């Protein structure tokens, strides 16, 4: 049965006669998308287009085939390189395979026949991988996760993990750089859980003065300290039967970490100024942009609390690893901002989109949103250009 997937094939061959013969045979297959290159330099300039299969002449002028092979493997190990060469020397063949070639074909009478067979076999493997990836993505009910914008593999992997644990009560630790969407994924887990009709209580640990953290989390009795003029329930009690989100958990001091460990183990809290234990039913989702494992080694974070928090670990990828999600997010933020602020609708020009793709986004999604909103204000035209961008203190 014919495949429904297109296999992208790059042919790097400087012999015009052989090149035309290979192209002719490949284009007989409806599901092959063939691009020809007569030099290694031209091919390398287009390597970021990520072909599925590359057929590569070993003896190219300029950059030789072995160097190109190494660059292919370094760039993307999923690409299947097939090397063609007049060399039959065993040492050369071994060297080529060691450097990542999937097949080695000697240029002789039946070389094109062998090449077509080899490409056909790898095309089947590539299509099988694509089919499996499609099935995996279909398993995710994407409609439930519309607030986490993006379609890259790292994002789909995160959502798949979230889907696995959303109906459980397991404790979750979300890690990732600042601005990657840790609270967004926390809300998603809560909103799709059995607790979705109960409170969701976010707490930014970094925003609470250290001397007030215990009272903020666990509450206090009237008169328990100066200024405690009335009883106050803490954030854990507010979250009873629901979910508490402890953002920047790595900012918690060691003394409070000891009390937090007991709360997580016993599911009870004690208000400041009281000896009475209060039993609670709270799901805990914690998040951090710090390396807690390293903090444990430096005696800045309790090891037992570290392991207790890791009931289930979800790591959010930085924006620079999410490919075209940058453009998907940017277009969403631009449309949203123009609509809310009643600005005439604007779009990104090709060069502007390339500028966003080239930038590293150290502040991740949060930085992208702020940059897009500034750009919407700065731009006087309907189409946004690279000159309209003003990045943060980081240079593009």
- Beta-strand fraction estimate: 15-25%
Structural class estimated from helices and strands: alpha/beta
Distance between the termini: 48 Å
Radius of gyration over C-alpha positions, nearest whole angstrom: 28 Å
Overall strand count:
14
Largest sheet features: 5 strands, parallel
Low-confidence stretches: none
Helical content band: 40-55%
Summed up, the helix count is: 15
- What integer is the average pLDDT? 91
Q: Which series of helices and strands comes N to C?
A: EHEHEHEHEHHEHEHHEHEEEHHEHEHHE
Give the overall shape, derived from the CA principal axes: elongated
Q: What assembly state would you assign to the polypeptide chains in this entry?
A: single chain
Record the strand order, biggest sheet.
2-1-3-4-5
How would you characterize the overall build of this protein?
By secondary structure, the protein is α/β, with parallel strands linked by helices. Helices cover 42% and strands 15% of the residues. The protein is built from 15 helices and 14 strands. The protein has helices spanning 16-26, 40-45, 65-75, 90-98, 111-139, 153-165, 182-191, 213-218, 235-238, 254-266, 292-297, 303-309, 325-340, 350-358, 364-378; strands spanning 7-12, 32-37, 53-57, 80-85, 103-106, 172-175, 200-204, 243-247, 268-270, 277-279, 283-288, 312-315, 347-348, 383-384. It has a five-stranded parallel sheet, sandwiched between helices. Strand 1 (7-12), helix 1 (16-26) and strand 2 form a beta-alpha-beta unit. The longest helix is centred in the N-terminal third of the chain and has 29 residues, at 111-139. The two termini are 48 Å apart. 31% of the residues are buried. The model has no long low-confidence stretch (mean pLDDT 91).
